[in-house]
């Protein structure tokens, strides 16, 4: 059986380390495992590949792989793979949804603390060598408590569930919205709203955390109407995908103080263009899509992938199977 590890990325962390495929060969000696970090000779090997481990795949590559039986994407987001040929096929697709939850949730909590205690403003004072407790209180967003604040959550997958559990442990009141509110309420969530009740949830939220997948129904879901429903003191935190938010509408809402703060890890266009107004807005905290960064990333990827690989080889049901019609 032939496994292609097709991982190519300009950022070192997103490139699987050398030990990853070496350990695969050691743990699965009966598999033919080929590693490609460039395009050279890669497509020819697709003809008889049965398993592909990859961030993305083009339609012509998918159609070429006539012996393919399973695709695994190490990312949680699989929208780059949602082309019709794959979506409408019977090909199993699994993802790395269970790899990133804890790490991204920690990033969300860091952003909540930074905003609540107004750390960005304190750092600007530090850069100017200014000792300014009065300024922290009178000329910026005042530091506030986290316990008792309401966190509205859009997306209760692996990231959202970790955010809910951790936020509730800090004394936050966690509410959420999901497509099917009849499903079991995740740990830490007090109340679940239906998708069409999103404005109602927004009106109650002090912090809005976006951790939903990008699909046709979630594209630009946070636009002018939703922003208008939020509290003027509210903070929007996006660790899902940039296109969940209408960026021009968000910029307008921040400028007019319709909402207080935005903490953004993802953007509609990445890298964020140099001329984006978001860079220079004092009520915006930007991290460059780093919520999922951790030195333990590939250790977790290996555990998740090899559990599924053993299941696949033994004819057992796979974990983290993507519903291709829903896109997650």
Task: Give a verbal description of the structure.
The protein is of the alpha/beta class and 328 residues long. The longest helix has 20 residues. The mean pLDDT is 96. It is built from 11 helices and 12 strands. Helix 4 crosses helix 7. Strand 6, helix 7 and strand 7 form a beta-alpha-beta unit. The chain folds into 2 domains: 117 residues, 3-Layer(aba) Sandwich (Rossmann fold), CATH 3.40.50.720; 186 residues, NAD(P)-binding Rossmann-like Domain (Rossmann fold). The protein has a 7-stranded parallel β-sheet with strand order 8-7-6-9-10-11-12, with helices on both faces. Strands 2-1-3-4-5 form a 5-stranded parallel β-sheet, with helices on one face. 32% of the residues lie in helices and 16% in strands.
Question: What's the quick description here?
Answer:
This protein has 328 residues and is of the alpha/beta class. The radius of gyration is 22 Å and the shape is elongated.
């Amino acid at each position: 059986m032939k496994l292609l590890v097709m991982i190519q990325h300009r950022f070192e962390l997103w490139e699987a380390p050398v030990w990853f495929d070496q350990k695969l060969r050691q743990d699965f000696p009966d598999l033919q495992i080929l590693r490609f970090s460039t395009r050279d000779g890669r497509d020819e090997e697709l003809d008889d590949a049965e398993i592909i481990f990859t961030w993305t795949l083009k339609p012509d590559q998918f159609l070429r792989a006539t012996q393919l039986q399973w695709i695994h994407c190490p990312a949680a987001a699989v929208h780059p793979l949602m082309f019709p040929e794959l979506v409408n096929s019977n090909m199993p697709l699994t993802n790395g949804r269970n790899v990133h939850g804890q790490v991204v949730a920690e990033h969300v909590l860091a952003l909540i603390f930074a905003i609540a205690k107004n750390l960005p403003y304190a750092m600007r004072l530090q850069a100017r060598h200014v000792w300014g407790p009065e300024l922290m209180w009178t000329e910026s967003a005042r530091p506030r408590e986290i316990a008792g604040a309401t966190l509205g959550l859009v997306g209760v997958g692996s990231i959202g569930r970790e955010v809910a559990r951790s936020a509730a442990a800090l004394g936050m009141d966690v509410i959420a919205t999901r497509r099917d509110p009849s499903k079991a309420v995740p740990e830490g969530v007090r109340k679940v709203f239906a998708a069409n009740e999103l404005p109602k949830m927004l009106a109650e939220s002090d912090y809005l955390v976006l951790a939903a997948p990008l699909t046709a129904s979630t594209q630009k879901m946070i636009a002018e109407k939703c922003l208008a429903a939020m509290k003027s003191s509210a903070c929007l935190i996006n660790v899902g995908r940039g296109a969940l938010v209408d960026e021009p509408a968000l910029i307008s809402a921040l400028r007019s103080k319709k909402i207080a703060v935005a903490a953004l890890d993802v953007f509609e266009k990445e890298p964020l263009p140099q001329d984006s107004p978001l860079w220079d807005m004092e009520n915006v905290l930007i991290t460059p899509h780093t919520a999922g960064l951790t030195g333990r990333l590939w250790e977790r990827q290996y555990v998740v992938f090899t559990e599924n690989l053993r299941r696949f080889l033994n004819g057992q049901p796979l974990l983290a199977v993507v519903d291709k019609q829903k896109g997650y």
